[in-house]
Amino acid sequence: MTEPEIWTFFYGSFINLNVLKELDYTPRKYEVARLSGFDITIRPIANLIKSEQHTVYGIVATGTHSELSRLYDHAENVLGGRYLPEAVLVQTMSGHWISALCYISPKLSGESASTDYVDRILKPAKTHEFPTWFIERIESFKS
Length: 143
Fold this sequence. Notes:
By secondary structure, this protein is α+β, with helices and mostly antiparallel strands. It has helices at residues 17-22, 65-79, 115-127, 132-139; strands spanning 5-10, 30-42, 46-64, 84-92, 97-104.
């Protein structure tokens, strides 16, 4: 039996398709999307915090639970961030609404992000044509 695929909203270095390939994951489908009600922080890696005033841009992609477990095991064991899934509703740039999982860390260290890590998010953010104000928000985390 084939493992079912679910939609997941990515907002940090996992919006970088090269990073996903390095972790042996290539989404079969993905779209640029936005998630309202959250703000992004990068301290020292990307995370979301609830905010009625903000919107976060990223990609919504299909994947299996096995693939997602591998990604977020890497996030915990290599990057040092434990992320837990939450259900969210994202809007794609084509105007469709998709219910998805979104992995959020309950606590990160709060240290400054490395320039290299921020650049792994900035390049695909520009490629995906995120709004200029959001790209500037990501750039603001460079140390």
